Fold:
Amino acid sequence: MKPKLTAILLILLLAARTVACFSAPAGAEDYARYAGKWVLSGDGSTFFELFPDGSFLKYEKDAKSGAGSFKPEDTPKGLALSLFEGNMTAEFYLSADGTEMAPKYSASGETYRREADGSAFLFGAPITAKSAVLIEETTGKVLYAKNPDLRVYPASVTKVLTALVALEYLDPEENIVVGDEIDSVPWDSSKAGNQIGETVRADNLIRLLIIPSGNETACVAARAVARKVSGNPNIPYPQAEALFADLMNKKAAELGAAGSHFVNPHGYDDVNHYTTAADMAKICRAAMSVPLIREIVGEKTFEDDGAGRPQSEAPEGTPIGALWTDASGVSSKEYNIITHNELIRDASEHFYPYATGIKTGNTDLAGECLAASASKDGKSLIALAFDSPGSGRWLDAKNMFEYGFDNYSFVVVADARTALEELPVTKPRLGAPKTAPVGLLTPYIDFLKADEAGKIRRQITYDSPLVKGGQLTGPVSTDEILGKVSYDLDGKTVFEGDLAVLTDVEKRGFLSDVSYFAGAVRDNAFTAKGAPFWILGVCVCFIAANISSARKKRRKNTFSMRRGRRRRKISYRRPR
Structure:
């Protein structure tokens, strides 16, 4: 009995030591909560990869490589299964020195990264949304797309377009009085808390539209715009909504969003209210170019009076959210609201440190939707995810962002006013270059993967009558357009621009030759280069003097001979 009891005690002791070999995150939560995730030990020195079957792998941070580099201690080299971010899975190989983990399957170069806090991002992971797009903001270039032209319902992501249109007609400083239009939204709409008779400054109206996603606020904005456009201050809301929806559709068409149609300013479900991820990416890009919208979509809270009045003037004891009227008759209230966008909320489990906006959306018909933006290392990206299962929209956005940030960078493919080639000049002026540089007047800067820059092919086409047989005939002025230059990547044109001559090209003639020689003499008269000209000049003068002297002597001799003849004739003549 004693040997068995001893064995049992040893097993229990070993189990206890195994459990004690690592510390769960603060609070020592139940193991099951961390199954399938990376867990950082209490002292911050060790990471554990926990598995649902109760096993785990232990890694120590490599002091030289820092966070994100791990050294296996209690596990053999080879294949290790890594479970993270819920149900997402990936297989890894450990490198020989144990400092890197590479994916077993990497059809298109997917990479993985572990953060110091134990979180993980999978780049190139399957996106869970039915439709998704990732673009670079300044160029609009599409970096990733999944069913980009699929018709989807935008829900409250619609309000990005609503804000864009509203600010084309409303002055951010003007006051707008809320009317009965707030009663036009369905009972289960998301609301900001507007009240009839309340005064809201236009910029704060956009805040109430975006941050708490107020559907009734969208109606207030639509009616305020419709009053201005129609000239009718009493326009009924149904007419105002139709007028505003028409403005939305015209704006969408102007931005190239041809697959979209809008019937209301808030995005509540309607079969005739739809868009595509590709279209909404264009709309969001346009909206982010408006400084006020860019500022508001990144705000985490709104804690202020709707009309922008100092709260110190409110009657003592006025609670937040209660209307109060000042001496001028303006009624408004204090708001204290928080954004629905969990990517920019610090306390959210979905917080993403590089996120800057934009708008969430969720309805029965649309599912979970998200328009998100992020900036890192001078790169700004916009991601759209429509109809993601559960909370997948947050991870979809993060994975798209990390894919873009890690794989793309700005490349100056062709700088402005830099010669792309030298074009031979027909009969160039004496002393002028025999070729003329041609290039772009504006730079071509692209957002490219590391291996794409070397694959870009350039093609130049001349269509000017000044260029014949591959030669340029002057005169031609600087910046005159001679043709086109296009750049292709994988058989697709990615850029096309005007090709211009970068210098003046003058035509050669008699006067230009004279001017050249005169200038050469003038510029080199008192230099070593001018010595040949002085010698030549002296020689020419000496020869000219000798020629002149000889001519004078001949003339003198001729004159003397003629006088002698006349004298002789006179001396032989007989007198009469």
Notes: The chain is about 30% helix and 25% strand.
